[in-house]
Design goal:
This protein has 375 residues and is of the alpha+beta class. The protein has three domains: 194 residues, Jelly Rolls (Sandwich), CATH 2.60.120; 51 residues, no CATH class; 89 residues, 3-Layer(aba) Sandwich (Malonyl-Coenzyme A Acyl Carrier Protein, domain 2), CATH 3.40.366.30. It contains ten helices and 17 strands. It has an eight-stranded antiparallel sheet with strand order 1-9-6-11-5-4-2-3, with helices on one face. Strands 8-7-10 form a three-stranded antiparallel sheet, with no helix packed on it. The chain has a three-stranded antiparallel sheet with strand order 16-12-17. The radius of gyration is 24 Å and the shape is globular. 30% of the residues are buried.
Length: 375
């Protein structure tokens, strides 16, 4: 198993969301969790988000998957990118666990890429944190400083920016890690046919929070209290300053009430942006769960599934892929175990199987295809 080779506490305190950094041999003796052939196979699946970026002189063309073959792209100057590879490939899922020193709710997905020589995506700026781990091969990376960077070709719709003065100018080899916080322009050029692994960590924007909160209110028939006022209008066409404050206070009062905002946040933060590899099975019953436990099996989450609990939640519950699951008797320690562990070990399951609420929850997870038996 790949293990991180740097001081995590120092990184979180001094680097995270502050500045980009190259960590040489950040993973010692690195082994690619997926081969180029396996990656190419994933990109042929219709449920998997993929694209090829073709380098064309000073510009780049994007071709979206799924793909039937790759011969048309030639030997050089292109890059295949597969989003959420951790949802579809077990070894890639296991690879991401080393980075769980950051909370699960921030983790977006693992994007895996194969790049032919001279392949790249051009200079661009991301609005999320990213770790880029170099696999087999070599790539040359440049990272610039934050600032006002012109969109490439003066196209405000483009994610690309004009060239920048680098503050990092490094060639990455297997096991090297490049960390880039939001807002820093960067570009990579492939020196040898390469595999690379990008772990994205995305936090919601104000727009996303408001949008999801509004959806939550409508879906749950909440937030119907209307503004009431005894203040006389200051003019026929005027909205008084005190009325403005009181109207906004109506929103503030709602979102600052834990019973309201905790449910909305749990729903939002546990959702996945990309498809999950699920195989629902309504025929599974509690007796099947007990039988598997007695047979000595572990239970494993599917790749990318988020199981979250909220600290000091006003209710005893878990949030799984945007849905809330309530508990009455099950202890908070058990809920914490469920949210922290990707694999529910058999010894633990044997101790807890008498908890009927837990058994009902596990049965639901199996029926939905979120958990499977690990022999």
């Amino acid at each position: 198993m790949n293990q991180l080779n740097f001081d995590i506490n120092f990184f979180v305190d001094n680097i995270w969301q502050k500045k980009p950094i190259v960590i040489k041999k950040g993973i010692r003796n690195f082994n690619d969790p997926i081969s180029p052939e396996e990656l190419a196979g994933l990109a042929m699946e219709s449920d998997v988000a993929s694209r090829v970026v073709v380098t064309k002189g000073d510009d780049w063309e994007i071709v979206h998957g799924p793909f039937e073959d790759y011969e048309t792209f030639g030997e050089q100057g292109w890059q295949l990118l597969v989003q959420a590879a951790n949802h579809w490939h077990e070894a890639s899922t296991n690879f991401t666990e080393a980075f769980r020193f950051l909370p699960d709710w921030r983790f977006d997905d693992l994007m895996v890429s194969f790049a032919a020589v001279n392949g790249g995506v051009g200079p661009h700026i991301d609005n999320y944190d990213v770790f880029i781990i170099q696999g087999s091969g070599k790539r040359h990376w440049k990272v610039g400083n934050k600032g006002k960077h012109k969109p490439r070709h003066n196209d405000p719709q483009s994610a690309l920016v004009e060239d920048f003065t680098p503050i990092i100018d490094e060639t990455l080899e297997p096991g090297d890690i490049l960390y880039i916080p939001p807002g820093f322009p960067h570009s990579g050029t492939t020196l040898e046919n390469s595999m690379s692994y990008s772990l994205g960590y995305r936090a919601p924007s104000q727009q996303e929070l408001f949008n999801d909160l509004a959806d939550f209110l409508m879906d749950n028939e909440l937030g119907k209290q209307r503004y009431e006022s005894t203040i006389k209008a200051t003019g026929k066409g005027a909205v008084g300053r005190s009325e403005q404050v009181d109207l906004m206070q109506l929103i503030s009062d709602f979102v600052n009430t834990p019973e309201n905002h905790q449910a909305a946040l749990g729903t939002l933060l546990s959702k996945n942006r990309f498809e999950l590899d699920i195989s629902p099975d309504d025929s599974i019953e509690a007796e099947d769960i007990i039988s598997s436990i007695n047979d000595g099996c572990d239970f494993t989450r599917i790749g990318g599934l988020k199981v979250l609990c909220l600290e000091q939640d006003c209710q005893r519950r878990l949030f799984v892929d945007g849905e809330s699951y309530s508990f009455n008797q099950t202890s908070e320690e058990i809920l914490a175990y469920l949210s922290d562990h990707l694999v529910l070990e058999n010894d633990w399951l044997k101790e807890q199987v008498k908890d009927n609420e837990l058994l009902d929850f596990l049965t639901q997870m199996f029926q939905l295809g979120y958990v499977y038996v690990q022999e």
